[in-house]
Amino acid sequence: MHVAIPLYPRFTALDAVGPYTVLAYAPGITVTFVAAEPGPVTDDRGTLTLTATAGYADLPRPDVIVVPGGAGTLDALDDQALVDWIRTAHESAEWTTSVCTGSLLLGAAGLLKGLKATTHWALLDHLATYGAEPVRERTVVQGRIVTAAGVSAGIDMALTLLARTADEETARAVQLVIEYDPQPPFQMDPALADRALSLLA
Question: How far apart are CA 160 and CA 124, in angstroms?
Answer without folding.
Answer: 21
